[in-house]
């Protein structure tokens, strides 16, 4: 399911961002082509103006100069002296080029109001027009037609500039833009593929944990339900004098189920961010003393020594949910009492640094293997050697972790010097 969703998101992101990229590139291409057209036309105007000025100033026009202008500017130039071709233009012209000259002259007269037939008197100022036209060969040209008065009449200059090079330049630019857009879309597709994996991985991990949570919860609930079912059958078949024993077992299993469901509801509230805390200034050293007094008789009963270490100077009040902090320490002590052998020492400790209040529970039991330290806070996790113990579902440390997060703190697991495990609650100290 997630792979199909990943493919769909990748296609959506690629097409969406690709469309935006293509639209922006199209706008840039349009502006670039406009700039190329304008620059090309301005260059044509500057070049024709230079040619007109030279023709107007010179009494003799070298054939070599004309050839150089045509070669350097990619022009085709025809000059008429009093409506007659100059001697060096008497060379054989291609019929197509002759038609283009005639068309340019005709359009200058009919569309741009340049009537050369009226300019026969002396001392009339030069006149010229420049325009674009479609030739009879279906190609585009810039055309310039000028009337230049001379002492013995006038010169007519017709200049043609084919736009083949301009179109080739624009096509090259379009190809570059197209290649850039396609390359960009491919890169976007690759990026989207990895980005969607990063985007969906938390959701996929959450679904995996949810599935695992449901499976583990179902497994944990199945055991007490099976016991209840077995006891009910036994009650039905046993004599009334023997049913009290089965009712006691049923009450114990019901209590186990109640505790499990309460823990699951707490974690569900934490996942939904609906788990509220009641913050109030709390004397942490007093809180630890209360915990010590609560568990000291139980530790003696289990043949274990419970100790407490408090700082010499009293700690300032800390704003927290007193009941929740007690719950965290109770979880630590319950685990220590359950998983350490007889005669073990359990130490309840409070320290204050510049950054944290440190509350920890250390034992000198078997400790926790390094490979399990990263997973002990996962829900329903229990080490193999403790799975037979009733009342421990592997949710306690998960609940403690959520309580620490509600207080913007953290939990830390480390080895006790000399052997054992130390669970530490770090609460940020704010002055």
Automatic annotation (TrEMBL):
Protein name: histidine kinase
Alphabetized UniProt keyword annotations: Kinase, Membrane, Phosphoprotein, Transferase, Transmembrane, Transmembrane helix, Two-component regulatory system
Enzyme class: transferase
UniProt superkingdom: Bacteria
GO molecular function: phosphorelay sensor kinase activity
Species name: Blautia hydrogenotrophica (strain DSM 10507 / JCM 14656 / S5a33)
EC code(s) of this entry: 2.7.13.3
Histidine kinase domain span: 216-431
Coiled-coil spans in chain: none
PROSITE patterns, per database record: HIS_KIN (PS50109), PROKAR_LIPOPROTEIN (PS51257)
Catalytic activity: ATP + protein L-histidine = ADP + protein N-phospho-L-histidine
Annotated compartments: Membrane
């Amino acid at each position: 399911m997630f792979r199909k969703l990943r493919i769909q998101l990748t296609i959506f992101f690629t097409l969406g961002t690709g469309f935006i990229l293509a639209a922006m590139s199209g706008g840039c291409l349009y502006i670039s082509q406009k700039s190329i057209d304008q620059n090309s036309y301005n260059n044509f105007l500057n070049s024709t103006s230079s040619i007109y000025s030279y023709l107007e100033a010179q009494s003799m026009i070298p054939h070599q100069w004309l050839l150089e202008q045509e070669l350097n500017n990619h022009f085709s130039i025809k000059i008429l002296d009093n409506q007659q071709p100059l001697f060096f233009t008497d060379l054989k012209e291609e019929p197509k080029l002759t038609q283009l000259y005639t068309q340019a002259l005709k359009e200058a007269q009919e569309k741009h109001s340049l009537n050369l037939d009226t300019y026969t008197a002396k001392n009339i100022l030069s006149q010229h027009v420049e325009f674009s036209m479609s030739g009879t060969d279906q190609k585009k040209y810039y055309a310039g037609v000028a009337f230049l008065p001379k002492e013995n009449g006038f010169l007519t200059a017709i200049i043609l500039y084919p736009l083949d090079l301009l179109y080739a330049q624009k096509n090259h630019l379009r190809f570059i833009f197209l290649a850039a857009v396609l390359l960009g879309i491919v890169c976007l597709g690759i990026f989207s593929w990895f980005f969607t994996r990063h985007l969906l991985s938390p959701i996929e991990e959450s679904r995996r944990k949810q599935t695992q949570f449901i499976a583990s919860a179902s497994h944990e609930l199945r055991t007490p339900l099976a016991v209840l079912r077995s006891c009910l059958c036994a009650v039905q078949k046993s004599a009334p004098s023997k049913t009290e024993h089965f009712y006691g077992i049923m009450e114990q299993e019901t209590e186990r189920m109640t505790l499990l469901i309460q823990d699951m509801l707490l974690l569900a509230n934490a996942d939904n961010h609906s788990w509220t805390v009641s913050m109030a200034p709390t004397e942490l050293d007093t809180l630890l003393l209360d915990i010590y007094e609560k568990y000291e008789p139980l530790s003696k009963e289990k043949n274990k020594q419970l100790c407490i270490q408090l700082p010499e100077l009293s700690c300032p009040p800390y704003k927290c949910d007193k009941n929740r902090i007690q719950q965290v320490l109770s979880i630590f002590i319950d685990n220590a009492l359950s998983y350490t052998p007889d005669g073990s020492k359990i130490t309840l400790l409070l320290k204050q640094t510049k950054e944290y209040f440190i509350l920890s529970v250390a034992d000198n039991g078997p400790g926790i293997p390094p490979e399990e330290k990263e997973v002990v806070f996962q829900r329903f996790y229990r080490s193999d050697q403790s799975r037979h113990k009733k009342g421990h579902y592997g949710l306690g440390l998960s609940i403690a972790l959520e309580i620490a997060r509600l207080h913007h703190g953290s939990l830390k697991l480390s080895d006790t010097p000399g052997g054992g495990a130390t669970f530490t609650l770090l609460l940020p100290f704010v002055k």
